[in-house]
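PROTEIN DESIGN WORKSHEET
SECTION A - STRUCTURE
LENGTH: 284
TOKENS:
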């Protein structure tokens, strides 16, 4: 960021010098031109006075004609100088002040916009340098599971009624084959938010894998309750289809997978389901 500010400062100074220097020179030149015109008018005035002194006769001078002519010349000189003083500064100000001011505003705006973009970039770089990388970098599966469990338990200690934390903790125990702990977590979810299709399916899955991938009566009853609430509950149907396939009930597995395809649920992987259906057809 310091490099940006130094560069921006040098650029602004350079541009301001380029913008304002001609204006300053213009003002100086205008003043010099004005002095030159004044000197020229005075010289002409003096020449005209000298010429009048030669042209007027003694009689005309005695009658005051020479004095009148001198007065006219003096008045003309004053008018010329007054007109020049009024017009020259106005024109000079318009040329020498308005344009540099506008250019200065433009330069400042460009610098501010540049800082906005560079500042955002620097913030993103700083963010990436801080501890915002993968929190599980360098960990194995067991360490990751332990870290996740510790974070979820901390959430639960801070908010014992956090049903999401309880459900995720149950999933973590299920994935690490800690079935009893998973059942405790899912039961807690049921106590807090009721027996919805999601938690019923999670509990049924726990019983299923606890029994060594066998559909026990308890697991089947929970699946039936979940499907009664949500006929197209993805996890429940996938568990049923997998169990039917493992037990060589291929047509039943095909029917369940086809039901999932027909549901047009965006959560499902249609390509994988089609592959599974084709495999089951080949196994029949």
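SECTION B - SEQUENCE
RESIDUE ASSIGNMENT:
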């Amino acid at each position: 960021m310091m490099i940006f500010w130094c560069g921006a400062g040098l650029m602004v100074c350079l541009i301001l010098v380029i913008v304002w220097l001609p204006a300053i020179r213009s003002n100086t030149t205008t003043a010099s031109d004005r002095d030159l015109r004044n000197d020229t008018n005075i010289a002409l005035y003096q020449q005209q006075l000298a010429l009048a002194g030669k042209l007027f006769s003694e009689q005309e001078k005695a009658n005051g004609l020479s004095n009148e002519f001198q007065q006219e010349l003096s008045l003309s000189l004053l008018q010329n100088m007054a007109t020049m003083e009024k017009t020259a500064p106005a024109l000079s100000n318009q040329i020498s002040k308005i344009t540099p001011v506008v250019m200065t505003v433009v330069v400042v705006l460009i610098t501010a916009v540049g800082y906005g973009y560079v500042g955002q970039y620097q913030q993103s770089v700083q963010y990436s340098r801080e501890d915002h990388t993968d929190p599980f970098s360098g960990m194995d599966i067991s360490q990751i599971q332990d870290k996740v469990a510790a974070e979820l338990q901390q959430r639960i200690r801070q908010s014992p009624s956090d049903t999401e934390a309880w459900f995720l903790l149950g999933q973590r125990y299920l994935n690490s084959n800690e079935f009893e702990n998973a059942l405790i977590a899912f039961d807690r979810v049921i106590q807090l938010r009721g027996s919805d299709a999601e938690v019923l399916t999670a509990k049924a899955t726990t019983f299923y894998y606890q029994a060594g991938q066998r559909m026990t009566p308890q697991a089947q009853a929970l699946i039936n309750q979940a499907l009664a609430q949500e006929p197209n509950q993805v996890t429940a149907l996938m568990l049923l289809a997998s169990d039917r396939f493992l037990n060589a009930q291929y047509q039943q597995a095909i029917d369940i997978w086809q039901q999932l395809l027909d549901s047009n649920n965006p959560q499902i992987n249609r390509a994988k389901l089609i592959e599974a259906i084709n495999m089951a057809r080949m196994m029949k």
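SECTION C - NOTES
Confidence is low (pLDDT under 50) at residues 60-66, 117-121.
The radius of gyration is 47 Å.
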